[in-house]
Design brief:
71% helix
Length: 219
């Protein structure tokens, strides 16, 4: 990799990280109720915790915004440079930014909506299928966390299967499968407490009337 290519890659990574790090859920909490959503519920800034602490419409707004934080940097990277490898670097940086946002002390979300946005920018047909699966899981079981730990890994497996099969190699590259594998690792690791509660049967379902309570030690 030459000097210009290295600078280009570093620029893509930096900009994508800073876009991904925009704390949508945190901003919504401050603007709408003057609270830090990280002091409530799961302590994350993602859309699910926003729904439990702020309500449904803020959930929808934050969900779309978090997805755009992954979609926009990756699609812009493609149009500017036409490189799948840079797309993957952009997507990984955006997810890292969402999970560990520099603007609010590196305590962010869990990367699900942002990963979906990256998937949409890299493989839109795959994303439509994942959304259908995700909606079915949420409607059938009412666990957002279950949807998260199934759909993001499923996206990785589909991208890997396409890459291995040679189906449309111009678009389904091994580098995109690599993004899926890393995104899966991020999502699963950050959902370990949820996975434990799912196994114990104590994970809260969506659609209930219970609102998120302040976390212990929250100010």
């Amino acid at each position: 990799m030459g000097g210009d290519e290295l600078l280009r890659a570093l620029g893509v990574i930096l900009v994508s990280y800073l876009v991904g790090a925009i704390p949508s859920g945190y901003i919504a909490g401050r603007l709408l109720k003057g609270i830090d959503v990280r002091d409530y519920g799961s302590g994350a800034t993602g859309a699910t915790n926003v729904m439990r602490s702020l309500g449904r419409w803020p959930f929808v707004i934050v969900l779309v915004t978090d997805a755009l934080k992954g979609y926009v940097p990756v699609i812009v990277t493609w149009f500017l440079f036409g490189s799948h490898d840079l797309q993957v670097a952009s997507g990984l940086a955006a997810v890292l930014g969402h999970d560990f946002p520099v603007y609010i002390g590196f305590r962010g979300g869990r990367g699900v909506a942002t990963s979906f946005g990256v998937y949409a920018a890299m493989a839109l047909p795959v994303t439509f299928g994942l959304l259908a699966v995700g909606v079915f899981i949420v409607l059938a079981f009412r666990y957002m966390s279950l949807m998260s730990v199934i759909t993001v890994p499923l996206g990785a497996l589909i991208l890997l299967a396409f890459a291995l099969s040679g189906t449309d190699p111009e678009h389904y590259t091994y580098s995109k499968a690599v993004f899926g594998l890393f995104a899966t690792a991020f999502v699963v690791i950050r959902h370990i407490p949820n996975i434990r509660r799912l196994i114990r049967g104590t994970e809260p379902k969506i659609g209930g009337r219970r609102r998120a309570r302040p976390r212990a030690g929250a100010t």
